[in-house]
Specification:
With 148 residues, the chain is of the alpha+beta class. Among the domains are: 16-52; 54-104, Roll (SH3 type barrels). It has helices at 15-52, 138-145, and strands at 59-62, 67-75, 78-84, 87-92, 96-101. A five-stranded antiparallel β-sheet has the order 4-3-2-1-5, with helices on one face.
């Protein structure tokens, strides 16, 4: 017979070769954690914080692409959004994709230091001439943005 029988050899128990074989798997896990898992967790945390901070008056974009203003926070899961004149839509809070503009929080009542006089309400427009009244509405916004 030309073929000799093969018998099982005794295993050479080298523990360092096992560690060397597992090192690439551990390295792959570390790379996945720092490049995929961790950034996704931080982004989800930022999204959750943004959704929790939504209040009345904020301009938002829904997941469907509707742009509107938050009219009322109904409960922790739902908000009412004005998307046009006399058109209000009830939206699940988690479908809000982005907050475009935040509103300033209202000052608590009785917190007026100047006796109820609103001294900083008028915005001075540098482009207005001295005899002309300061622009209001869209013209003031365009002036602030430097588009006028």
């Amino acid at each position: 017979m030309l073929i000799s029988p093969a018998y099982a050899q005794a295993a050479g128990g080298d523990s360092t070769s096992t560690l060397i074989q597992l090192a690439p798997l551990a390295l792959i896990f570390v790379v996945f954690y720092f490049f995929l898992i961790r950034p996704q967790q931080t982004k989800a945390k930022q999204q959750r914080a943004m959704l929790d901070a939504i209040r009345r008056g904020d301009r938002v974009v829904t997941g469907g692409g509707f742009i509107g203003t938050v009219a009322k926070v109904v409960n922790p899961e739902e908000v009412l959004i004005d998307i046009a004149d006399n058109v209000r839509v009830r939206v699940v809070r988690s479908t809000i994709a982005q907050v475009l503009a935040k509103t300033e929080p209202a000052a608590p009542k009785g917190d007026d230091k100047d006796g109820g006089k609103d001294t900083d309400a008028a915005v001075v427009d540098a482009s207005a001439t001295p005899g002309e009244p300061a622009p209001t509405g869209w013209r003031a916004l365009l002036g602030i943005l430097g588009l006028r």
